[in-house]
Design goal:
Strand content: under 5%
Number of strands: 0
CATH topology of one domain: Tetracycline Repressor, domain 2
Helix content: over 70%
Number of helices: 10
CATH class of one domain: Mainly Alpha
Largest sheet: none
Distance between the termini: 73 Å
Structural class: mainly alpha
Shape: elongated
Length: 223
Amino acid sequence: METFFVYQVSLQYFRRKFTINVREKILTKAVELFLNFGFKSVTMDDIATEMGISKKTIYAHFSTKTKLVESAALHIFDIISTGINCISAKKLNVIEETFEIKNFAMKHLNNERSSPQFQLNKYYPKIATILKNKQFEVMQGCVVENLNRGIESEIYRKDIPVSFISRIYFIGITGIKDNDLFPTEEFSTTELMENYLEYHLRAIVTEQGLKTLNQFINKSPLK
């Protein structure tokens, strides 16, 4: 009886672990495809074909595409948030920190070749709102801390309105992802990010900070 019980427990553990692994693989592949081609463009058939599994298997873990999109969007958010927290913990020069966060985000978003954020806003507005609120919460903490450290280190001007600047930064960093305003055939993601960071930082740096900023601008792939 004891042996049978151990067998049952082991079997349940294996099934649970197998189920989790399959779900994670589906989520990982979905994230990859969504970032490359967009949340709207990728179908459940596309994911099933890429993985060599049936749609039925996907639906066993995600009952609708909307639920898969939500899980994928939150998964991407968690990865980016963890990375931002790790970079912030280094206490780098505030300008270096800003550029390192930008490089990390772009690397993990595959430069957003299909503008997934734009598709998310357009076709999945409820999910986009949830994500936007989470992004704002994380970015507010990160940006406010960066601004305050920049003021203390005399890299940013003492007279900048921190709360206002942090919110304007968030509006800008999300606004440049609007394809209607910045069509991809005219503006590359790299160009938008580089230009926006320069625009943001030039508005708040001191003369000392400008010297540091120019060093990073001169290293830009656009120069």
